[in-house]
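Q: I'm writing up a methods section and want to include an example of the input and output format. Could you take the sequence below and give the corresponding predicted structure tokens, formatted cleanly so I can copy it straight into the document?
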Amino acid sequence: MRSEFEYIITPEEKGERLDHFLAEKKEIGRTRSQIHRLIEEGFVELNREIPKPSYRIKKDDRILVVLPPPAKPEVKPENIPLDIVYEDGDLIVVNKPQGMVVHPAAGNYSGTLVNALLYHCRDLSGIGGVLRPGIVHRLDKDTSGLMVVAKNDLAHQALARQFKAKKVFKQYFALVHGVMREEKGVVEARVGRHPKHRKKMAVIKGTGGREAVTHYRVLERFNKYSLVELDLKTGRTHQIRVHLTSIGHPIVGDPTYGHHREEFTVSGQLLHAARLGFDHPRTGKQLEFEAGMPEDMEEIVSELRTK
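A: Here is the clean output for your methods example:
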């Protein structure tokens, strides 16, 4: 990727402000405020001198822009409380709260599960890289529940193989809109990127997308709602949320695929990863863990029982 750009001002370009001129250059790819900062920090030269952003460019002015290398993000340990369900020398199982991002990403390098884990563990598998140490699988920010994290590369590789081979048991609870008629059923529909809204996923007809299978069973029925148990046979992005919406039962509180108006005040979808099972990566022993519904979800379900 280019890091240096040189321009010699033509008669047609003279008179324009320097920061405006550079902000219009697509190859530089910076906003006006970013250009302003580059100039003030000395990354722009005008005739071998440091100019002011407001300088009016003149014919034959020579401008040199040297873009600084991107700063490497640093993920710092943070003393954030963790709900630890199980831990040994190879792995840790946590009950992630709703609203917590799993790993840092652009513009969000603090307050994540990884930040908390680095403070608690100090040693996590390096396979996931700087931003995702130990992370073998994910939950959406607003999905609560059980996750397993690898402390070393042996555990990471063994767990990753189990996820790939679909040998990991994952069971969820969800409160959905509408009263489901069938006691149980299967949604088998391919999931892929939405053709128009690139930040959303969707059921894809034909051969597009990826295979996705969700088994559901009704636990309780209420007036206008159902509490369901879901078993995943695949683990596609937003799979449960997309599948349930596709059969007319979006998850309560889902900001992307749900209703625009909600009866209850919630901060995200009422979807909880309640059970998680896998073979221990070192001993081979079968492990299974369970975490009850979070308090806000339990309260809403309790309220519905009284109606």
